[in-house]
Amino acid sequence: MNPRFDPDLLLMEVNGLTVEFDTPDGTVHAVTDVSYRLHRGETLAILGESGSGKSVSVQAIMGLVPSPPGRIAAGSVMFQGLDLVSASRTEVNKLLGSEIAMIFQDPLSSLNPVFPVGWQIGEALRVKDGLSRADARARAVDLMDRVHIPNARKRVRDYPHEFSGGMRQRAMIAMALAQDPKVLIADEPTTALDVTVQAQIMDLLDEIQRESKMGLILITHDLGVVASVADSVLVMYGGRIIERASADDFYAKPAHPYSQGLLASVPRLLSDMGRLQPIDGAPPSLIHLPPGCSFGPRCPHVAQECLTDRPHLVEVPTRPGLAACKRMGKF
Predict the structure, then answer these.
(1) Residue 271 — pLDDT band, cuts 50, 70, 90?
(2) What is the pTM of this model?
(3) Topology of 6-99+182-323 in CATH?
(4) Which long-range contacts (CB under 8 A, 24 or more apart) does 191-197 make?
(5) pLDDT tens digit sequence for 105-136
(6) Domain residue ranges of the chain, discontinuous segments joined by +
C-alpha cells in the first residue's frame, strides 16, 4: 500500500451525487448516484470514455456546473463537516482554492492571456490571504520553483503564450498549490502533452503528494497513467460508477465487462497481442439511456436480464471491490 495513504483519515465523502442538464432535446443525466470516499494521501483515479460523466462529477464538487441549464439534482459532498452541495456560495468559496483545488485539462484556455503567469499564480494570495503585490510575487516565484519551472524569478513576468504546454500545466499546478490544499482534483492533466512531458507532470504530482500527503482525484482515460500512480480506481459508464476497486485488484482481475474491454484495448509493447481489441458500438445517449444495463448493447456477455434490469454495485465474488453486473461470475 502507498505509505502516504491513510485509510483512517477521511478527507471527503461523496454520496449519491446526481447532476442533470436541461436541453431542448430532454434532460441529460450526466452523473447518476455517484458515491466514493477520498482519504489522506490517497490517489483516486476516475476512468471512463469521453461523455461518461467523469469531469462533470468533479465540476459539481467545485461548484462549476452552470445553472441553468445544469443542476445538482441529488446527493451530498461532505468536506470537513460541510456539505458543499447545500452550503451557501460564500461558505463554499472559502474552501475552494485554500482547501480544495483543481487543475484543468487545457491550461492555455484556463490561463488569462493578458496577465503575466506570476500575477495569476499570486492572485489568490492577494485576494484571500491579503498579501501585498511584492509578497505575492515572491511567493509565486517560490511556487514556480517548486513545480520546476526553470529560471522562475525571470519567468514570473512572462505571459501564458510564452510558455510551452508542459510549462503552462506546471504553472496551473503552482496556482492550485498556492494555498496548500488538502484535496487536489486533476482533470485530464496530461491530455494535450507528449508522452515525455506527461511522465514529468505525473512525477511532479507524485512528488508534491509525497511532501503534502494531500488527497488526489485524477480524472483520466489513460490506463497507463493510472497503473503507475493510483491507489483506488472508479470506472464510470453512462454517468454511473460501474466498478470500484483498488488499483492492484482492478488491473489484476477487472470484474465488469466494460473494464475488461478497456484493458484489452490497451497496446502492450512486450507482447505479441495481434490486432487491438476495440469495444464495439458507441457510448449511450445520456438523454435516452437504455432501461437495463447501460453497457448492455455493447457487452459481449449480455443476456436478456441485462437489457431489462438495471444492475447495482455489488461485491465482486473473486476479489475485493464492487461491480455493477448481473452476470458477474458467469463468464
Answers:
(1) low
(2) 0.91
(3) Rossmann fold (3.40.50)
(4) 191/105, 191/106, 192/105, 192/106, 192/165, 193/165, 193/166, 193/169, 197/165, 197/166, 197/169
(5) 777 788 999 999 999 999 888 887 888 999 99
(6) 6-99+182-323, 109-180
